[in-house]
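Margin note from the TA: students keep mixing up input and output lines. Inputs are the sequences; the output is the structure of the whole complex. Example:
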Amino acid sequence: MEGTLNLAAYGLLFLGVVTSLICLWQPNKILSKISLATVALAFVCLTLALIARSVASGRLPFATMYEFTFLFAWGILFFFLILRTKFVSDLLTSLVALLAIIIISYGSTLPSDIRPLMPALQSFWLELHVITAIVAYGAFGLSCCLGILYMVKEKVGDQGMGKSLPELSKLDNMLHWSVALGFPFMTLVLITGAVWAEEVWGRWWSWDPKETWALITWFIYAGYLHARKTYGLQGKKAAMMAIIGFAAVLFTLFGVSLLLPGAHSYV
Amino acid sequence: MTDTNSKFTRPGGKGVIHLLSSMKMGLFLLLLIGAASSLGSLIPQGEEAFFYKNHYGELMGAFILLLSLNKLYGSWWFILLGAVFATNILLCSVKRLKTLNSIRAVGSVVLHLSILVIFIGSLVSGLIGQSEYLELGTGESIDLATKGFPGYSLHVKDFKIEYYDNLEPKQYISKLTLSGEKNEVNSEISVNHPLKAEGFTIYQQSYGWKAKGYIDVGGKEQQFDLVNGADVIVKENIKMRVIYVPDFDPSSGDLRSRSPLPNNPHLACAILQNDQLLAVEVIPEGATKELAGYPVTFSSYRYYTGLEVKQDPGVKIIYTGFVLIVIGFLIRYLAPLKTAQKSEVGL
């Protein structure tokens, strides 16, 4: 059940990328709507897959890296669909769908067997940790896509694919909105992780690579927000920071697990 | 963060304070601490000195050791960076107190000060917090004064493991009695549910098996009470190693247990002379077998529990900091805006 739904989500996202790319090349209102519908449907399929997994395992799907990659993709699509009420852009649709495909593809290479929760993972704090991470990383993923849109819009102006993009200042505002939304949740990710570690091992902070990189991510977005407030940081530099910030998110999630050994061995 | 005077440089001490309280300095410190932290995640921490010289070459290895990059997060310069950063946050917040013009600005100051509370908590932890790991068999007690906690003793009444249907562990549970001069606290602890009483936090960390028995050495009974895998000296140059097998499979004779449950407890004993194997026997509970001329009896087995015993008043301060951060964010984001500030919606 879960596998079929995930496969359906994958196929729909793929269709979403193809249709939205065609729209970029040859604007077409109906096709544009179809591409949005496929992404929305993919979101529904992912949601159902996560529910199916929860039912099958008798717990929330918050324990393994496999589970988190699907939650991560879910969060990015969630924020995309919220933002979609403010403006429609084929470029954003294709970027978000592509990002979700990449994340899901990586997730599919990870062991997916459902196992009962080991004692260290049976914690209310861990559940909060994962929920806040979905919100924070979903919002940051969206801000990265908006950063890319900003770069594109600045380069091509109102020509070609820039036509369907909103004004630069609007893009910048939305980018700021998504970072400002993600940041308190990123803070909660750090806090809930610290409280969990304190309750389970008696060490709220141990500088293992995963938590170090989560802190670095927090620093980058804190830097962005302060620079914007104090120096009015906007435009290309701000877009660049949103992209770098999300690169740090991806490195925290995947790079650290692959490259840097540490105590954070669950995810 | 108002930073309207940043283009002025003032001479003397005021200039230093001005620099320290600037947003530029704050952003620079974020960058610097971030970069240093990433370096610490890339260079393996806490290895022996020769490791770095082998891995990074003589010159680079010496450089790493000189700057304490092998224990970066505890190095004087990293802590100094943290202290300067804390000072920057403090000065920025004090500066802002003078120009508070909205409830949201108050939230922002609370947010920044709460980070300082966490710094203070860490400092308290580092200065007076202490933590010790200890292993106790079921039924055993320890005077915690021997571990640096005078006036208290700890007794392990019982230890048990709960399993899922597939025999993967579900929970590790210790029944403890913590006794002080006045009070006695009885509590059941498990992973994620430490005992918190009398300023102590006691964590379920580990577990294992202990085996009891005796060896007949030339008519003299020599008792042993050993952790699984440990050795007992029998005679000069001769020692016995024990491996406890909770669920022995007699058909294969394999020392790997069929299950984690003590369904068929056996003790595998090996007599070693100068690390050379003389004899091996697998002894059922209550039985005696002869190994290289020494009759060995396996009388009983029981669990031991691995506990982390901690006293750290800093944690409460740090948790207070966490709560203040959340309150700060709530005020900063959700307090009603004055109409004049509506342009700031979203933050």
